[in-house]
């Protein structure tokens, strides 16, 4: 589907290390990382964080909702986009040029 | 006890705790038998939930929606419900079979934009904040800063034939790809790009023949009409599901016999049907077509010469006046420009001997009601006042001019692109004889620039060339001065 195409494009974009699709109970549905333990680690940790962030945003104003979450660290950037049933995670190394 | 009542009758008998009898009997005990029953333990589920404000809010919302639905169902019919339920059941079966991934469509799209934003971070920052500081020193000159470059693999060998910005979404624009070469005719493409995602178009439509022109409807920003090299006109919607056009004119419904060079939307007519006008070549025929019915209306405009052999002028471009919607200009391949009105279909109001070669673009000034500009393959851009037959300004650009556009923010600023890969920006308020900025923009050598357009809101230009590359350029402050 189109979603597949877009997903592949993201993966092939320069600087992207990997992407994971997580279901809402923390199970990775699709992952581009070769090592499974890395995937599971990312899933568990990031999902909890995303849940906490969403809870915080909605607590402040229940009409509001989390659109996305970005964690920028020294080495790379983790971008999380929550959707009603799933969570999409992309790890990218921000370069200067494409 | 026989003794007890007798003395009780004779006198008060004091109760004597020692004077009593006890009786007892012993019977057989009933035999005891044990009976047991063991069942399965009731199923247990661990339930935990946090009680946040938003969870309560969500619960209330869900309840509210349920009530609303109940209200609707009561108003509806029993038969209607039955059919709906069946449809719903079918849908759910299909959904589970279909891609689970479809649910994260929105998230994926957003993430793609975020990833792009990261890689093109510098450009995004430049777009927003960078202003050329050297403009303070050079009063008469400005620069164009190259920003994103948009490319698409399938469009690599095609020329950009038309650029339109979306009137509603200021970061969305549509590009038509095709080929200007008479000998090599290929298929065409229509792509919608967003500035937020330079690596891939948002929507893509493929056509059988090259697309020469496209126009977005000012009120329904998802409707796009395109003119094709094979003479037909097609209408696409950005949100449509199918791959082909929504409507396409065919030989039966009045397709033109030659390439359609320009299309332009008109205001909705009385029936609320969307109309658009097309200018094909060689018949100087402006036909207004009803999108929904696709029938021929409107009268053709005859050519200038009285000779009965087909010596008709061929229109290459036209533009409607912003305010007087019956007035329009037509540019021809012979170099003349005609001013016409929709009220008089058989005669021109005025003729201008504009150029020696084909006129590629004619466009009214968005602010000044009587000024228009023409550009042509004879290397010149001319500015006219429609009441005079001689041009007011003439600019010679040393190379065939592919396109020219007025800026939407100032009545004296306009830009033109030439076949030698340069973009020229003029501001008549500052310098009436020279361009404020002449910059080479083409990505590879020998690419001719074919089209240019200003973004209605942001200070950027989009330039397309004949190799299929599109670049966006930011205007420096000197080029953006308001009059």
Automatic annotation (TrEMBL), chain A:
One cellular component term from this protein's GO annotations in UniProt: cytoplasmic dynein complex
Superkingdom to which the source organism belongs: Eukaryota
SUPFAM superfamilies xref list: Roadblock/LC7 domain
Pfam families found in the cross-reference section: Robl_LC7 (PF03259)
SMART domains membership: Robl_LC7 (SM00960)
InterPro entries: DYNLRB1/2, Roadblock/LAMTOR2_dom
Subcellular location: Cytoplasm, Cytoskeleton
A biological process term (GO) from this entry: microtubule-based movement
Stretches assigned to the Roadblock/LAMTOR2 domain: 3-92
Keywords: Cytoplasm, Cytoskeleton, Dynein, Microtubule, Motor protein, Transport
Function recorded in the entry: Acts as one of several non-catalytic accessory components of the cytoplasmic dynein 1 complex that are thought to be involved in linking dynein to cargos and to adapter proteins that regulate dynein function. Cytoplasmic dynein 1 acts as a motor for the intracellular retrograde motility of vesicles and organelles along microtubules.
Family to which the UniProt record says this protein belongs: Belongs to the GAMAD family.
Stored PANTHER family: DYNEIN LIGHT CHAIN ROADBLOCK
Entry protein name: Roadblock/LAMTOR2 domain-containing protein
Organism: Macrostomum lignano
TrEMBL record, chain B:
Cellular location(s): Cytoplasm, Cytoskeleton, Cilium axoneme
The keyword Repeat is assigned to this record: yes
Stretches forming WD repeats: 352-394
GO biological process: cilium movement; outer dynein arm assembly
Gene Ontology cellular-component terms listed: microtubule; outer dynein arm
Keywords: Cell projection, Cytoplasm, Cytoskeleton, Dynein, Microtubule, Motor protein, Repeat, WD repeat
Start and end residues of each stretch annotated as Disordered: 27-46, 68-88
GO molecular function: dynein heavy chain binding; dynein light chain binding
Record PROSITE patterns: WD_REPEATS_2, WD_REPEATS_REGION
Name of the protein in question: WD_REPEATS_REGION domain-containing protein
InterPro entries linked to this entry: Dynein_IC, WD40/YVTN_repeat-like_dom_sf, WD40_repeat_dom_sf, WD40_rpt
PANTHER family: DYNEIN AXONEMAL INTERMEDIATE CHAIN 1, DYNEIN INTERMEDIATE CHAIN
Protein family according to the UniProt entry: Belongs to the dynein intermediate chain family.
Top-level taxon of origin: Eukaryota
């Amino acid at each position: 589907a189109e979603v597949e195409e877009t997903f592949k494009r993201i993966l092939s974009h320069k600087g992207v290390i990997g992407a994971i699709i997580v279901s809402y109970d923390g199970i990775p549905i699709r992952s581009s990382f070769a090592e499974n333990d890395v995937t599971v680690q990312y899933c568990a940790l990031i999902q909890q964080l995303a849940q906490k962030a969403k809870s915080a945003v909605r607590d402040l104003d229940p009409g509001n909702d989390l659109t996305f979450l970005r964690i920028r660290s020294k080495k790379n950037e983790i971008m999380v986009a929550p959707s009603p049933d799933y969570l999409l995670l992309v790890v990218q190394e921000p370069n200067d040029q494409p | 006890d026989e003794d007890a009542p007798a003395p009780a009758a004779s006198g008060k008998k004091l109760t004597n705790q020692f004077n009593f009898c006890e009786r007892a009997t012993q019977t057989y005990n009933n035999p005891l038998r044990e009976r047991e029953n063991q069942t399965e333990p009731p199923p247990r589920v661990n339930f935990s939930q946090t009680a946040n404000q938003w969870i309560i809010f969500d619960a209330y919302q869900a309840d509210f929606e349920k009530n609303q639905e109940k209200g609707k169902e009561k108003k509806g019919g029993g038969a209607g419900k039955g059919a709906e339920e069946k449809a719903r059941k079918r849908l759910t079966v299909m959904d589970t079979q279909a891609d689970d991934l479809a649910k994260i469509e929105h998230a994926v799209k957003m993430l793609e934009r975020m990833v792009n934003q990261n890689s093109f971070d510098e450009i995004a920052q430049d777009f927003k904040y960078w202003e050329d500081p050297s403009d303070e020193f050079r009063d008469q000159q400005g620069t164009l800063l190259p920003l994103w470059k948009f490319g698409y693999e399938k469009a690599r060998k095609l020329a950009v034939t038309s650029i339109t910005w979306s009137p509603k979404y200021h970061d969305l624009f549509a590009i038509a790809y095709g080929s200007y070469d008479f000998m090599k005719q290929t298929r065409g493409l229509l792509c919608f790009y967003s500035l937020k995602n330079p690596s891939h178009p948002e929507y893509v439509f493929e056509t059988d023949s090259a697309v020469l022109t496209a126009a977005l409807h000012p009120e329904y920003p998802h409707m796009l009409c395109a003119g094709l090299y094979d003479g037909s006109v097609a209408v696409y919607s950005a949100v449509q599901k199918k791959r082909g056009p929504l409507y396409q004119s065919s030989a039966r419904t009045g397709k033109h016999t030659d390439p359609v060079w320009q299309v332009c939307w008109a205001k909705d007519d009385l029936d609320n049907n969307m109309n658009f006008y097309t200018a094909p070549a060689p018949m100087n025929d402006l036909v207004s077509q009803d999108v929904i019915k696709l029938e021929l209306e409107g009268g053709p405009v005859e050519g200038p010469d009285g000779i009965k052999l087909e010596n008709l002028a061929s229109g290459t471009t036209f533009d409607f006046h912003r305010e007087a919607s019956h007035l329009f200009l037509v540019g021809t391949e012979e170099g003349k420009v005609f001013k016409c009105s929709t009220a008089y279909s058989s005669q021109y109001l005025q003729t201008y001997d504009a150029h020696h070669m084909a006129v590629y673009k004619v466009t009214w000034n968005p602010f000044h009601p009587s000024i228009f500009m023409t550009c042509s393959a004879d290397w010149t851009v001319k500015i006219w006042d429609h009441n005079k037959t001689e041009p007011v300004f003439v600019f010679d650009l040393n190379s065939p001019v592919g396109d020219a556009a007025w800026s939407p923010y100032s009545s004296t600023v306009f830009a033109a692109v030439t076949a030698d890969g340069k973009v020229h920006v003029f501001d008549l308020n500052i310098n009436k004889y020279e361009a404020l900025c002449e910059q080479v923009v083409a990505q590879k050598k020998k690419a001719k620039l074919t089209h240019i357009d200003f973004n209605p809101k942001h200070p950027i230009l989009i330039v397309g060339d004949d190799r299929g590359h599109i670049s966006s350029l930011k205007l420096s402050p000197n080029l953006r001065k308001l009059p």
